[in-house]
Amino acid sequence: MTRTIILACLSILLVASIITRPDEAFQASLQGLTVWWNIVFPGLLPFLALIELMIAFGAVHAIGALLQPLMSRLFRLPGEAGLVMALGWTGGFPCGAEATASLRKSGHITPREGQRLLALSHVPSPLFMLLVIGSGFLHRPAIGAAIAAAVWSSALLASLLHARFVKTNASKPGNQPQQETKGSLLKQAAAAMLAARNRDGRTFGKALGDAVTLSVYKLMAVGGFMMFGAVLVRLAEPYMPEILPAFLLSGLLESHIGTYAAASATFAGGLPWNAAAIAAILSWGGASALLQAGSAISGTGISLSRLAVARLVQGALAFVLTLAAWKPLTALFSRVLPAAAPALEQTDKTGAATSAIVRAGDLHTLWPYTPVLLLLFLFMSASLIAASLLASPNTRAR
């Protein structure tokens, strides 16, 4: 009852703020829409449709059989989790959450496994970190790559530690244990794919239509969350205490806007602290990304509050890792990535660009790079499968 009253009061305050400041609310919603259209929509659409098609035609089950040795050893998760990890790491927010929810609803993972898989796969898009932040916001592609390395490392480290030191339930509902299937991993994969395809039974046209329709519906919901987060940031800015960095509010609520503000910040420690703040914001993801994940996992038994705690831990790890490995990471990536123009002008002693406004000219749209994302997903999946085959006892015996 108390929670309902609090939410009702907050809703009334939000509506009143929008009524009293309609122009700022409108501009903020356009800002969220710009980010969604240029970055999120092209980055997510192919992957959301792809996971639905892969489930319909049994590809998820086949790849799951191939990845079983690797994922069970490293993360104590079923093989299908490896595919979700690849989708989340290439598609970005909230692709990992959607894929995790799909596996949970189809009975391939338990709620506990889903909880750990969600924390591992709910990460930002690599092209957003490399192109938008590295090349666009900071004008230093090497820094974008260093930030991406810190974000991914924090997710891996947290998941590995959780798998080693926290007791987990290894049972898997609705699945026959793949280890009981006779023959090689390839035969197991073929058998799993055929069985899943027979269970689904939809034609290619029907499966494709369902996948596209569901993906667009989910993307519209994601866009709504992002616009809502942008409006909240703009309306709450005047009430922020001056002692706090101005990028803190936007970073807590919406990661895309927060990273722009952190990139434009002035820190006593210089650029390494900008990068560390951006890595922490990206690993946290923002309340908007958490709400997107919450919408995806609704009814699956996976806890959003536990995800929030995991994201806070990963954010702290990413901040520390970025500062600790700043020199070797930037030196390494500077050798393989081209240099660019100077970073964004720093404008405010508290650390934010004016109103943290993401200008369209500062964004690298991801529409032309959709094929690159798909190739990256294929490369990551193939690498995981190769590592899993090497880790398989049957493969080593031969």
Structure description:
This protein has 398 residues and is mainly α. The chain has one domain. Helix content is 73%, strand content 0%. The protein is built from 18 helices and no strands. The chain has helices spanning 2-20, 22-56, 59-75, 80-91, 95-105, 111-121, 126-137, 141-165, 185-200, 204-236, 247-253, 255-263, 271-284, 286-296, 304-324, 326-336, 370-391, 393-397. Residues 170-182 and 343-355 have low confidence and may be disordered. Pfam families: Gate. Keywords: Membrane, Transmembrane, Transmembrane helix.
Mean pLDDT: 85
What is the chain-wise order of helices and strands?
HHHHHHHHHHHHHHHHHH
Rg for CA atoms:
21 Å
Q: Report the uncertain regions.
A: 170-182, 343-355
Overall spatial form: globular
**Percent range for β-strand residues:** under 5%
Structural class: mainly alpha
Number of strands: 0
Total discrete domains: 1
Let me know the largest β-sheet. none
- Name the helicity range: over 70%
Count the DSSP helices: 18
Q: How widely separated are the two ends?
A: 63 Å
InterPro entries: Gate_dom (IPR011642)
Protein name: Nucleoside recognition protein
Transmembrane segments: 44-67, 117-137, 143-163, 216-236, 275-297, 309-326, 372-391
Domain Nucleoside transporter/FeoB GTPase Gate: 40-121
